[in-house]
Design brief:
The chain is mainly beta and 363 residues long. The protein has helices spanning 52-62, 114-117, 257-268, 300-304, 323-331, and strands at residues 8-9, 13-14, 41-42, 66-76, 92-103, 109-112, 120-126, 132-141, 146-151, 174-179, 187-201, 207-214, 226-228, 234-241, 252-256, 276-277, 280-284, 290-295, 311-315, 318-319, 338-345, 348-355, 357-358. The chain has a 6-stranded antiparallel barrel. Strand 17 (280-284) and strand 18 form a beta hairpin. The longest helix is centred in the last third of the chain and has 12 residues, at 257-268.
Length: 363
Amino acid sequence: MLRTRTAAVVAASALAAGVATGVAGYAAVSGDESTPTASAATQSPAVSSSSRTTVGAIYEQANPSVVEITVTSQTSSGSSDSPFPFGGAPEKQTQQAQGSGFVYDTEGHIVTNDHVVEGATSVKVTFANGATYKATVVGTDPSTDLAVIKVDAPSSVLHPLDLADSDEVAVGDGVVAIGSPFGLENTLTTGVVSALNRTLDGTNGYSIPGAIQTDAAINHGNSGGVLLNMQGDVIGVTSQIESESGGNVGIGFAIPSNTVRSVADQLVSGQKVEHAYLGVSLEDAASGGASIATVTSGSPAAHAGLKAGDVVTALDGHSIANAEELTAAVVSKQPGDTVKITVKRDGSTKKLTATLGTRPSSS
């Protein structure tokens, strides 16, 4: 299913070449942006001076577990639309970009964003103490913009962070973000949870429901970093920002920790992450519910008899108020599950049954 709002990926920052942007990756671009002024600890007005000791303690505890990720990839200097003279092949160019990640377990698994490692030919991880290790990509899930990489590092640098129950997060909760914005490793920012249950795009165009919105400063290079609660536990992985300029405007988003736990555990165990699929694009209905904009041919929705213009008002007996709620309801299911869908069509109410499929690789 497709989301109905737009947010930009917090792409990894390109080394010595401006910043990297893009929904499906982090292609490095040269730019005229001036070097930002930043500090290793930015105090938000949302956190009072009386809590600085607590914030500092959280940083001291969590910072050794947050890593900087340097990715090397190759791009072509030309394209099929503009071939080189005499039939020559496009020249391959090597580029580097940076993102963030955190230690997931004592075996060396590290969680980051899919868009950080997408297309990587080599990956390097640098810990807070300056130690650097080569990493391999264990698995990725573009649908949630999450990935797991692995380093062969001594136990002395592997300090896993605990994951909180993101369902317990509330608007107004204090948060701490740690990452490497613009390549400035070990940067701390603070803020609050601004909203819950936002819907983002995965790198393959599908929706990621349940995202946490925060006003903690998040910039390019924070991708894959952590959003922590005031107990120092991970409540999310920073991934995207809403910004017309491409810089921080106080609207950042994190993939919730419950999603992180589910996806990371599957990737670590060598499984391919599968997501339930209905096969519709959605809009909010003016009268309430989720309005179906399009139905993919041959999809579970098509087989169930859903049509463009239908307004879904309930799934398995639970009311659906908008497109985000229907997206979240479907994503919470498993491929093969059968669901009862209540729709309004041409002034009447119909009840349909759909057997959810497995989400294709791209929307």
